[in-house]
Amino acid sequence: GVPFTMDDAYPFLRQSTVAFGFPDILYWPEDALSAIVERREATSVDIVVGVVPTRCPEKEDLLKLDDRGKIVGIRIKQPGCKLKYTWMIAVWGPRFTEFMHSFLAEIEPEIVANDGLWNGRELYAGDVLWAAIQHGLTHETVVFDEGGYIDIGTPEELAYAVQEYARSTAAQGNPSPGMGIDGG
Known about the structure:
Strand content: 15-25%
Oligomer: single chain
Protein backbone atom coordinates (compact mmCIF):
# COMPACT_ATOMS: atom_id res chain seq x y z
CA GLY A 1 0.00 0.00 0.00
CA VAL A 2 0.83 3.68 -0.10
CA PRO A 3 2.47 3.90 3.36
CA PHE A 4 4.96 1.13 2.52
CA THR A 5 5.71 2.76 -0.84
CA MET A 6 6.35 6.05 0.97
CA ASP A 7 8.59 4.24 3.44
CA ASP A 8 10.68 2.77 0.61
CA ALA A 9 12.19 6.26 0.28
CA TYR A 10 13.19 6.30 3.98
CA PRO A 11 16.97 5.92 3.38
CA PHE A 12 16.92 8.94 1.09
CA LEU A 13 14.51 11.16 3.02
CA ARG A 14 15.07 10.44 6.70
CA GLN A 15 16.82 13.75 7.38
CA SER A 16 14.80 15.84 4.92
CA THR A 17 11.66 17.89 4.68
CA VAL A 18 9.22 15.97 2.49
CA ALA A 19 6.49 17.45 0.29
CA PHE A 20 3.94 14.75 -0.45
CA GLY A 21 1.11 14.55 -2.95
CA PHE A 22 -0.57 11.57 -4.55
CA PRO A 23 0.73 11.35 -8.14
CA ASP A 24 -2.68 10.65 -9.67
CA ILE A 25 -4.55 13.47 -7.93
CA LEU A 26 -4.94 16.97 -9.35
CA TYR A 27 -5.17 19.43 -6.47
CA TRP A 28 -5.99 23.11 -6.26
CA PRO A 29 -5.48 25.96 -5.56
CA GLU A 30 -2.23 26.14 -7.47
CA ASP A 31 -0.38 27.66 -4.52
CA ALA A 32 -1.57 25.02 -2.01
CA LEU A 33 1.78 23.26 -1.73
CA SER A 34 3.71 26.49 -1.22
CA ALA A 35 1.16 27.55 1.42
CA ILE A 36 1.68 24.41 3.48
CA VAL A 37 5.46 24.59 3.07
CA GLU A 38 5.34 28.17 4.39
CA ARG A 39 3.14 27.09 7.33
CA ARG A 40 5.56 24.34 8.29
CA GLU A 41 8.53 26.70 8.07
CA ALA A 42 6.70 29.26 10.22
CA THR A 43 5.54 26.78 12.87
CA SER A 44 8.17 24.00 12.85
CA VAL A 45 5.46 21.39 13.49
CA ASP A 46 6.11 17.80 12.49
CA ILE A 47 3.52 17.75 9.70
CA VAL A 48 1.26 20.21 7.87
CA VAL A 49 -1.69 18.89 5.92
CA GLY A 50 -3.49 20.61 3.01
CA VAL A 51 -7.24 20.20 3.52
CA VAL A 52 -10.11 20.62 1.04
CA PRO A 53 -13.84 19.91 1.08
CA THR A 54 -14.65 16.25 0.49
CA ARG A 55 -16.39 15.05 -2.68
CA CYS A 56 -16.40 11.27 -2.27
CA PRO A 57 -16.50 10.17 1.40
CA GLU A 58 -16.42 6.52 0.36
CA LYS A 59 -13.00 7.03 -1.26
CA GLU A 60 -11.24 9.41 1.15
CA ASP A 61 -9.63 9.97 4.52
CA LEU A 62 -12.24 12.14 6.22
CA LEU A 63 -10.94 14.60 8.80
CA LYS A 64 -12.66 15.74 11.94
CA LEU A 65 -11.25 19.17 12.76
CA ASP A 66 -11.66 21.15 15.96
CA ASP A 67 -12.35 24.90 16.00
CA ARG A 68 -8.58 25.62 15.66
CA GLY A 69 -8.21 23.37 12.62
CA LYS A 70 -6.48 20.55 14.49
CA ILE A 71 -7.23 17.00 13.39
CA VAL A 72 -9.12 15.26 16.21
CA GLY A 73 -10.24 12.23 14.22
CA ILE A 74 -9.81 10.50 10.89
CA ARG A 75 -12.40 8.21 9.33
CA ILE A 76 -11.22 6.15 6.38
CA LYS A 77 -13.49 5.63 3.37
CA GLN A 78 -16.87 5.77 5.09
CA PRO A 79 -19.91 6.25 2.83
CA GLY A 80 -22.51 8.52 4.36
CA CYS A 81 -20.06 10.09 6.79
CA LYS A 82 -20.96 13.72 7.49
CA LEU A 83 -17.40 14.99 7.90
CA LYS A 84 -16.73 17.68 5.31
CA TYR A 85 -12.94 17.72 4.80
CA THR A 86 -10.25 15.48 3.38
CA TRP A 87 -6.51 15.86 2.72
CA MET A 88 -4.46 15.21 -0.39
CA ILE A 89 -1.10 16.92 0.25
CA ALA A 90 1.25 17.25 3.19
CA VAL A 91 4.68 18.52 4.18
CA TRP A 92 6.61 16.89 7.00
CA GLY A 93 9.98 16.78 8.64
CA PRO A 94 12.31 14.01 9.83
CA ARG A 95 10.34 13.30 13.00
CA PHE A 96 7.29 12.15 11.01
CA THR A 97 9.47 10.15 8.60
CA GLU A 98 11.06 8.34 11.58
CA PHE A 99 7.66 7.73 13.15
CA MET A 100 6.26 6.29 9.92
CA HIS A 101 9.29 4.03 9.45
CA SER A 102 9.07 2.68 13.02
CA PHE A 103 5.27 2.35 12.97
CA LEU A 104 5.32 0.38 9.72
CA ALA A 105 8.13 -1.89 10.95
CA GLU A 106 6.08 -2.58 14.07
CA ILE A 107 2.83 -3.48 12.30
CA GLU A 108 4.31 -5.18 9.22
CA PRO A 109 4.33 -8.68 10.80
CA GLU A 110 0.61 -8.33 11.55
CA ILE A 111 -0.08 -7.23 7.98
CA VAL A 112 1.95 -10.09 6.49
CA ALA A 113 0.19 -12.60 8.78
CA ASN A 114 -3.21 -11.25 7.70
CA ASP A 115 -2.71 -11.41 3.92
CA GLY A 116 -1.89 -7.73 3.59
CA LEU A 117 -4.69 -6.48 5.83
CA TRP A 118 -4.45 -4.28 8.92
CA ASN A 119 -7.46 -4.22 11.22
CA GLY A 120 -9.36 -6.11 8.52
CA ARG A 121 -8.59 -3.73 5.63
CA GLU A 122 -5.82 -2.10 3.63
CA LEU A 123 -3.55 0.28 5.54
CA TYR A 124 -3.88 3.86 4.26
CA ALA A 125 -1.70 6.95 4.57
CA GLY A 126 -4.41 8.48 6.77
CA ASP A 127 -3.95 5.61 9.24
CA VAL A 128 -0.28 6.53 9.61
CA LEU A 129 -1.13 10.22 9.94
CA TRP A 130 -3.70 9.48 12.65
CA ALA A 131 -1.29 7.16 14.50
CA ALA A 132 1.36 9.92 14.45
CA ILE A 133 -1.09 12.45 15.88
CA GLN A 134 -2.15 9.99 18.57
CA HIS A 135 1.51 9.47 19.46
CA GLY A 136 2.01 13.19 20.04
CA LEU A 137 3.56 14.41 16.80
CA THR A 138 2.63 18.02 16.21
CA HIS A 139 0.57 19.10 13.25
CA GLU A 140 -1.23 21.98 11.58
CA THR A 141 -3.74 22.12 8.78
CA VAL A 142 -4.23 24.66 6.05
CA VAL A 143 -7.86 24.58 4.93
CA PHE A 144 -8.60 25.55 1.35
CA ASP A 145 -12.39 25.95 1.43
CA GLU A 146 -12.38 26.95 -2.25
CA GLY A 147 -9.93 24.20 -3.14
CA GLY A 148 -10.52 20.73 -4.45
CA TYR A 149 -9.10 17.73 -6.21
CA ILE A 150 -9.76 15.20 -8.93
CA ASP A 151 -8.41 11.64 -8.62
CA ILE A 152 -7.45 10.91 -12.21
CA GLY A 153 -6.38 7.40 -11.18
CA THR A 154 -9.93 6.14 -11.74
CA PRO A 155 -11.69 6.01 -15.13
CA GLU A 156 -14.70 8.00 -13.87
CA GLU A 157 -12.60 10.77 -12.38
CA LEU A 158 -10.32 10.91 -15.42
CA ALA A 159 -13.39 11.39 -17.62
CA TYR A 160 -14.60 14.09 -15.21
CA ALA A 161 -11.21 15.84 -15.38
CA VAL A 162 -11.27 15.83 -19.18
CA GLN A 163 -14.82 17.24 -19.18
CA GLU A 164 -13.87 19.98 -16.70
CA TYR A 165 -10.78 20.87 -18.72
CA ALA A 166 -12.81 21.10 -21.92
CA ARG A 167 -15.46 23.20 -20.16
CA SER A 168 -12.90 25.59 -18.66
CA THR A 169 -11.04 25.89 -21.97
CA ALA A 170 -14.29 26.70 -23.78
CA ALA A 171 -15.15 29.26 -21.08
CA GLN A 172 -11.80 30.97 -21.70
CA GLY A 173 -12.68 31.34 -25.37
CA ASN A 174 -10.17 28.82 -26.68
CA PRO A 175 -11.97 26.89 -29.44
CA SER A 176 -9.46 24.04 -29.45
CA PRO A 177 -8.75 22.43 -26.05
CA GLY A 178 -6.22 20.12 -27.74
CA MET A 179 -3.88 22.99 -28.55
CA GLY A 180 -0.61 23.33 -26.74
CA ILE A 181 0.01 25.83 -23.96
CA ASP A 182 1.53 28.32 -26.36
CA GLY A 183 -1.47 28.01 -28.68
CA GLY A 184 0.51 26.10 -31.31
